[in-house]
Amino acid sequence: MHTRSDGEPHGRLLLVDADDASARLVTETLGQSLGGSLRITTASGGRPAAELLRDGDFDIILADLSSLRDLSERSDDAVARLVRLADGALVVALSDGASVTAAVGAMRAGAHDYVTKPLSGPAMAARISELAQRHGKTRALSIEPRNSGRADFAGFIGSSSAMQFVYEQIGRISASSAPVFITGESGTGKDVCAEALHAKGPRFGKRLVAINCAAIPRDLMESELFGVARGAFTGAHDDRKGAAELADGGTLFLDEIGEMDLSLQSKLLRFLQTGTLSRVGEAGVRQVDVRVICATNRNPMQLISEKKFREDLFYRLHVLPIHLPPLRQRPTDIMVLARHFLARYSAEERKNFSGFAGDVASLLTSAEWKGNVRQLQNLVRRLVVMCDGEEITMPMLRAADIESQGLAPVAEPAPRSERRQAILPMWQQEQRIIEDAIASFSGNVSLAAAALEISPSTIYRKRQGWAELSVAS
């Protein structure tokens, strides 16, 4: 197995593109942004790429879908063949147009992402880094764009590579009217993302209407979403528009979409398919033009497997996905955010705080932040309200951190004799995790792979390897 020396690139990237001019442009763009961290090899089509994959290992594959036709006329079949040969590499499908069918097909075939041309070098470098971390690749890919980029964008604060990619995604897809599916943990800013998409798009002059599917009782949700006709039920004295009608011409934001009742999901699907709705108690239909943005902090594939979310609705909504990274995955943004909140709340409360002590900054940066940006924001605001001074000190932080969520001192390690446990080999621990996931989805490998954020082909390959190890032992 080849071992890289310190002077070598961190990994190998295979670019599959039949257009020589396009391949040169992509290579130049990525080369400038990656700063030599990846060695780039090009292939003019699917078959030459397959030969290269059989002969050597690659960490990342960028494959233009139109260039894979020599492998198969169906792009999803061609992607599936590349994924099987990729041996666990990150596979990103490229296309000149934002085709929903092509995107869904490529992802179902095992691609880790789908990106439209032309590529932005810094954004693509950030995306590769985020994918490598998110999918737990064993090959080390330490990739950062040369330029850190902007530190604020449409309500977001952060200059990390992960946030640069989010900004680039918002800029690309804001002009479209296609549905957007935002995922991310609580507190990562999914509502800010929806507002940014609306503000940057052509519907900015119209309304953005948000409705929280988890905060409204199920028996009231339909009337809140689609409206009520007069006399529909006791107390309905007047016609009332729902959120969808109020957003006509603008944007409808469905937050916590995973909490919507199944019976209402079918009506939402029909609304998305036809662009028409009927108020509760009304026989006729009304034409409405809205862009739908939805968000969830839950795993949609798990909801589908549990029969809590319709699969056809998911694929109707999951056209343009955006994933917001948790704060712990972008530690360089923590102090940028903390200083921003400190300046904001100091001005509001008429305090004189101007910064953080060094030990405080170190502790904030190393904290886990289970509540993400919202937790950090609340802590800084509490500090400003409760304390006085020019600098946030450690005693102030200890006093204000009343929940001790992620900021409590690290406990002293237990004696070695108490900590010693039987350690299983890595492949056995990995096998246990994957097999448990498959069992939880009743043997469905595709759903288990989606929950683990790996491709199904990776599971099949690893199972074959485990079988060989068992035979050998």
TrEMBL record:
Gene3D superfamilies per UniProt: 1.10.8.60, 3.40.50.2300, Homeodomain-like, P-loop containing nucleotide triphosphate hydrolases
SUPFAM superfamilies: CheY-like (SSF52172), Homeodomain-like (SSF46689), P-loop containing nucleoside triphosphate hydrolases (SSF52540)
Residues of the Response regulatory domain: 12-132
Domain of life from the UniProt record: Bacteria
Domain Sigma-54 factor interaction positions: 156-385
Modified residues (4-aspartylphosphate): D64
PANTHER family noted in UniProt: PTS-DEPENDENT DIHYDROXYACETONE KINASE OPERON REGULATORY PROTEIN-RELATED, TRANSCRIPTIONAL REGULATORY PROTEIN
Name of the protein described by the UniProt record: Fis family transcriptional regulator
